[in-house]
# Entry
Amino acid sequence: MGLLVVKNIGLLLTMSNRLAIADAVVVIKDGVIEWVGPSAEFDLDLYQDCTVIDADGGLVTPGLVECHTHLIFAGGRSDEFEARATGVPYAEIARRGGGIAKTVKATREASEDQLFELAVPRVYSFLAQGVTTVEAKSGYGLDFDSEMRLLNVAARLDKATPVDIVSTFLGAHSIPAEAKENRAAFVDDICDRWIPEVAQRQLAVFCDVFCESIAFSVDESRRILKAGLLAGLKPKIHAEQLARTGGALLAAELGAVSADHLDFASKQDAKALAEAGTVGVLLPGCAVSMCKPDFPDPKLLQAAGVKIALSTDYNPGSSVTLNLPLMGSFAMAFMGMSAMEVWEAITINAAAALDLQDFVGMVKPGYKGDLVIFRGADPVGPFYEYGGSKVAKVIKEGSVVVRRDPCGGVTI
Ligand SMILES: [Zn+2]
# Structure
């Protein structure tokens, strides 16, 4: 705690109304941003006993916000990636025992401590790329005890690492093999037993559902998300990823905080989401891991006035990356987004996708003292030089938690 002054900022992207300040200073007091402005208006004499960090003329942004991950699981599926890359059909991959079921099996067999140990380096990988808030979904347990174990791990990660972990209950990720014959009973169980227990133990902020023809119908999704709302869990939804099934309209109907994927969203969907204030979360990493050049299109959503967030969708099947700025490179290269649109999508709009827009995602007095210092003042640079990292330092609530040397070495 105490006072931290970040000086010699070449360019500060405050993300408040796209305000950028050249030659800026930021002051953080007791973990919260206290003062932001040009260095000409800054008086160091007012701040006794402060720690001074030199940004070396670099770019400074809010701590990045990762708003959609399946962070906690065991096992890997690299064989499926190679199968897809070499043209093996999905049905054949499923016949070989691949897909979500493979991760569910490995996850159920892992202990809580093993799942925690697997997830810790993933959290630090995000942090090293400038991410200071990470959403984590359950969903690879699919039975009561295993889902609780995943949510417990998320709570432990929040305490054990500098990163804020925001927990989402996704018990309705897939129908497990043992419930295929009686899916109605499985949905009943989620609504009547799991959700009230998750809420009572305060293990999640959000309730999410995978609304697709291969997972949960719109009616089942409505039931699950309404049960979540009743228990105090805010709704999120995986919608229109593989086909248009009505998930986006359901998101608008329920006032969901976010609707995620939206590859097949229509103009009508976009209008409804905009009116409901639901954030559209686009996940370009899926196109790469699925070995298909089908990137989501932000234009339709933007034209209707939907706020766009970008996320990795980190998971062992359809998007296996912990590099959020790389999603910005993909969004520029394949989705027609500008650098400023990308910055909004991984800061303030991603914060809105977690209902945290009043606390993180902007460099503004009263917001959390989470900052990223990048090498060089060019606001396009971190996306232009894709796949690596231009992060020099990451500051979490007023403390330097990551230092990267120019040769790529990272100290955490
Ligand atoms: Zn997902």
User: Anything to note?
Assistant: The longest helix spans residues 183-200. The domain at 64-352 is CATH 3.20.20.140 (TIM Barrel).
